[in-house]
Amino acid sequence: MLQSKLFPKTLREAPKDEVSSNAKLLIQAGFIDKMMAGVYNFLPLGFRVLKKIEEIIRREMIEAGGQEILLSVLQPKENWLKTGRWETYDTLFKFTSFYSKNDFALGPTHEEIISPLVGKFSLSYKNLPLYLFQIQTKFRDEKRAKSGILRGREFMMKDLYSFHKDEKDMEKYYEKMKTHYKNIFDKAGIGDKTYITFASGGSFSKYSHEFQTITDAGEDIIFLCEKCKIAVNKEIINEQNTCPQCKNKDLIEKKGIEVGNIFPLKTKYSSPFNLKFTDEDGSQKDIIMGCYGIGLGRLMGAITEVNHDDKGIIWPESVAPFAVHLLKIKSQKLNLKINEFSDAIYKDLQKNNLEVLYDDREDASAGEKFADADLIGIPYRVIVSEKTLKQDKIEIKKRSEKETKLISKNDLMKYVG
Q1: What distance separates the 2 farthest-apart alpha carbons in the chain?
Q2: pLDDT digits (tens, 9 = 90+) for 28-48
Q3: Residue 339: exposure state from Cβ atoms within 10 A (0-12, 13-18, ≥19)
Q4: What span, in angstroms and rounded, lies between the C-alpha atoms of 120 and 271?
Q5: Which helix H or strand E contains 313, and what residues bound it?
Q6: Which DSSP state fits 126?
Q7: What domains appear along the chain, each with residue ranges and CATH number?
């Protein structure tokens, strides 16, 4: 990608109406644009990051046995009346059709859609367990949309629903999903800062589990158990004041961002829709359910919060918009050779299937190019300049490190390949 063609340009200053680091940095670097409170547009750089996060999640859900579907955003009122949530779900967007006069909701979640859908297909014990997931836009009427893309009114989310013949089978899959979620956060570059966190299971389970990423920008208060390497949320601490696993009382208070959750639903959303299966003995039994959610934008925001410095973002390689940022530093004496050398490197990187952003801008100074490279945060910065060309070398630097190296053009793939 030629940076001279990239939409949009970076901003000289961070937006003054944003408080969170993720929003300030992502807007200033040209990854997102704020439409209104709680609603953001993803621009080319941001969309590339979002799609990489999406693919990490998708692959892991398929590995977990999931089949991908896409459910309707527009949801009928009667489904929400059956579960009793039409009046109690406090962030539900509701509206009345101008033509039909029927009431609808914009989906904040999809239990009210997935349960009656699965119920249409007369399942037997032979069809279970069943795992269905989607990656889709959700809508929630947050009273105070804040924290940039960590908490929005419109956002991308992966939700997987599991369907089982009994609680034992659901619990087995629930434990398996903990591992898959750990894999996702490891691959996204925040696994070392993300803890499985005990949370309340509500009225039908003792515990559910959140995945909390430790950062001072976190909205939640959690308590770490160094013995178990797990965390406990504030609600559980208020109830029992100990680690649920080892009963340790010496817990460390931290702030965290919830980047995912898993929840045993049991029959909470199967019963209202008469979602049953035919067992081996021919009897009809309630299907047991579980749900497993991850917000893609929220994860992107959390990655930004824990991976930045005073100059800009530091993307993990797995989700970076490009692998290499190639900077061409113009020179009056050697400009033609610099152009030719830089163009050749650009083509070589592309031939080796490496994603590269090529700063070919003729109207930008060296200082502007360096500042933009730090702000955008691509893992490897490669510089071609009069200084490097005289030594028949190129300069390479990892965004996460201070040290720079002079290497030959032929050795470049050893560092970034």
Answers
A1: 87
A2: 999 999 999 999 999 999 999
A3: middle
A4: 14
A5: strand 312-313
A6: G
A7: 9-309 (3.30.930.10), 324-416 (3.40.50.800)
